[in-house]
Amino acid sequence: MKPLRANLSRVPWVLVVCLAIAWVPWLGSRYATFLATDIVITALFACSLNLLLGSAGLVSFGHAAYFAAGAYACAILTKSHGLPFYAGLVAAPLLTAVLAAVFGFFCVRLTRIYFAMLTLAFAQIVWAICLKWNDVTGGEQGLPSVPQPDLAWMASLPLLAGLRPAEHFYLMALLIVGLCFGLLRMIGRSPFGRMLEVIRENRERAEFIGLDVRRYELAAFVLAGTFAGVAGALFGTFNRGVFPDFAYWSKSAEVLIMVILGGMGHFWGPAVGAATLLWLHQQITSYTQFWPFVLGTILIVLLFAFPGGMVGALDALRRRILGRPRA
């Protein structure tokens, strides 16, 4: 059994999963491709928050600020200044990294609920700027009609020639998100990721042994904001519009629910939570308008049944079958 587990641990699961879901345009409908694109981008957003919540134990109520900043940065550069999409995609995480560094400098000086409330306060500042800065952000109207990237080069490839532009965008987004997932996986397994887990388990002990806790938390804050910026840039282009609601507190709550539902601390937990929540939203809204009530009921049942999240429940079942003690 041990050699089997060792071999499974060496499998590049990020690559395997990306290759598996890359077949959606050929096997599914247009709706399936649309939903898969939404899930893939939102999964990156959720996993960026998991770097704070699951790895470092930092509860952020304002993570949507960096998602919105990345979306606006890419949209402004492509729509208002006519730059190509790839320039906006590079600029978005750079801007959000700087923004996260500034906000994080103040946030990491506080702990627990005070940290969470300060992240919410900064996010509301970003939301207010997006809502009122009409000359740049479009104000309440946002920035509609964001141009789509030129993916004509993909149509010249043998297997992709018969696909539609939306399916080309899905494959491009999947490639970018897959690279980001690979980087997040490397960060989680690196000494830096291990130190974040030490800080999460016992902050006082980490300080006692000489770790610069604030520096580690600030680095995690900046990395999380950077990946959220990439997700925002992709989502704004996919949505063909960027609006102030992207930075509102309800967006932060939504992604927080995804992480908890899937299983915070587990690498694939946020992605599973994002897929589950978005699929439930699509299914429930097609039958009833009382989506929040039904969602709340389902979440209560799931969280009571799986207190460690969906992936946490599967991991506990796997450990029980294999007879391994809980980590």
Name the beta content range. Answer: under 5%
Helix share, percent: over 70%
Mean of pLDDT: 86
Count of domains: 1
Individual helix count: 17
Give the SSE string: HHHHHHHHEHHHHHEHHHH
Give the SSE map:
Blueprint: H1 2-9, H2 13-21, H3 24-27, H4 30-56, H5 64-80, H6 85-107, H7 112-132, H8 134-137, E1 143-144, H9 152-155, H10 165-189, H11 191-201, H12 203-208, H13 213-239, E2 241-242, H14 249-262, H15 269-285, H16 291-305, H17 309-322
Antiparallel strand pairs: 1-2
Helix pairs in contact: 4-10, 4-13, 4-14, 4-15, 5-6, 5-7, 5-13, 6-7, 6-13, 10-13, 11-13, 14-15, 14-17
Can you tell me about this structure?
With 327 residues, this protein is an all-alpha fold. The protein has one domain. The chain is 75% helix and 1% strand. It has 17 helices and two strands. The chain has helices at residues 2-9, 13-21, 24-27, 30-56, 64-80, 85-107, 112-132, 134-137, 152-155, 165-189, 191-201, 203-208, 213-239, 249-262, 269-285, 291-305, 309-322, and strands at 143-144, 241-242. A two-stranded antiparallel sheet has the order 1-2. Helix 14 (249-262) runs parallel beside helix 17 (309-322). The protein is globular and about 55 Å long. The two termini are 18 Å apart. The model has no long low-confidence stretch (mean pLDDT 86).
